[in-house]
Design brief:
Rossmann fold, 13 strands, 44% helix, 17% strand, globular
């Protein structure tokens, strides 16, 4: 029997990104005991439930690695780890990853293994110099206290493999549930579009309302899209500190009938089926889970160029890549997909093929190899 502690800054991260891991662990060992240590933010997520853990610790992490409040969080976490006698501490997110590795130094000497999943380093090709100056030395230092570093994109894998002194592995994201996300039949799609009032030309943008996600670019693009496709609608799913700013931009551009902020939703699979195209404007993205979910649902994507999106989209084949901030180029590509049915259908078919490589089954196999050793 294994006893495993999953650590992240917030509990919603564990809920959203570690179901494949937990399913694999439960299948491999019915007696496995899984604990979670993270700040409870589930009330902000419309009742999202952490229903697969045996024990959950509410640890008062702050997102900023430099917040003084994380000193108290570290003390709470260290006691949990010292008392827990865990076989594996599997940490995630910058704060969770740093504090968990600090708190695990002692128990590593007694056999506990520390895994860290990097969901996208803050340092990458083209990143601001300050990111390299601040975050790279931190990650390099803590790699000495990491037994397995797990990366989710090829750029991070190559960098970590060449520069960090620990075992480095690559997996295909966190896994997408193809029992939830798949292309709906014509009747189902029609019913969902009527129920959700999306219409036939809907674009979906999913992610926390944060500066990095840059949903303002998609809103600006829609001001051009509606000139060519008047019934087009953009639905922005998620909550966060940028909500008021984005609402103001929608009003200033007179897009109240075409752009909707729908908050955090728990039936995302229905929205993916009802919408026609996925869009992402993230300045930094480790991979792009929501784009994969859209692709698995048959939706081509229009996204800005970054290391995560570049792995998912071959420009012109299963969607389009545009430069960061170029909302006119984004608008033109959205218009092309919404009006050119032949191009749309071609991109849709290729999107589903690519997305199939990021399914739960694929990622569970990769995680099982990491946890239990590769099988022939």
């Amino acid at each position: 029997m294994k006893k495993i502690l999953l650590v992240a800054t917030v509990q919603s991260h564990i809920c959203q990104f570690h179901r494949a891991l937990v399913k694999m662990l439960r299948a491999a060992d019915e007696k496995v005991e899984i604990h979670v240590a993270a700040r409870d933010n589930l009330a902000e997520k419309n009742g999202l439930k952490l229903d697969f853990a045996d024990k959950v610790f509410d640890v008062p992490f702050e997102r900023s690695p430099f917040s003084a409040k994380n000193i108290g969080a570290y003390r709470v976490l260290k006691k949990i780890i010292d008392d827990g006698n865990y076989d594996i501490v599997h940490c995630n997110t910058p704060v969770g990853g740093i504090l968990a590795r600090m708190a695990s130094k002692k128990c590593r000497r007694h056999g506990t293994k520390v895994f860290y999943t990097a969901h996208g380093f803050h340092f990458y090709n083209g990143a601001p110099k300050k990111n390299w100056m601040i975050y790279y030395p931190i990650e390099k230092y803590f790699s000495h206290y990491t037994d397995v570093l797990i990366t989710i994109n090829e750029e991070d894998y190559a960098l970590a493999k060449s520069r960090f002194k620990c075992r480095v592995e690559h997996i295909h994201g966190v896994g997408v549930d193809n029992e939830r996300f798949f292309q709906g039949d014509r009747k189902t799609v029609s019913e969902l579009r009527k129920k959700l009032d999306t219409g036939d030309s809907a674009v979906l943008c999913v992610g926390e309302l944060l500066p990095n996600k840059n949903q303002a670019m998609a809103i600006k693009a829609m001001s051009e899209v509606v000139k060519a496709v008047p019934d087009a609608k953009l639905f922005i799913a998620g909550n966060g500190p940028e909500q008021e700013e984005l609402s103001g931009l929608i009003n200033r551009l007179g897009l109240q009938n075409n752009v909707k902020l729908i908050g955090y939703i728990t039936d995302l699979e229905n929205w993916q089926k009802a919408c026609a195209v996925s869009v992402s404007c993230s300045k930094r993205e480790g991979l792009g889970l929501n784009l994969i979910e859209g692709m698995m649902s048959g939706n081509p994507a229009v996204a800005v160029k970054n290391r995560g999106h570049n792995e998912l989209i071959t420009d012109g084949e299963n969607g389009f890549l545009v430069e960061q901030g170029d909302h006119l180029a984004m608008a033109n590509r959205l218009i092309e997909l919404l009006l050119d049915k032949e191009k749309y259908n071609s991109c849709s078919e290729k999107s589903m093929v690519i997305a199939s490589g990021y399914s739960f089954d694929i990622v569970k196999k990769e995680l099982k190899d990491i946890y239990y050793g590769k099988t022939k």
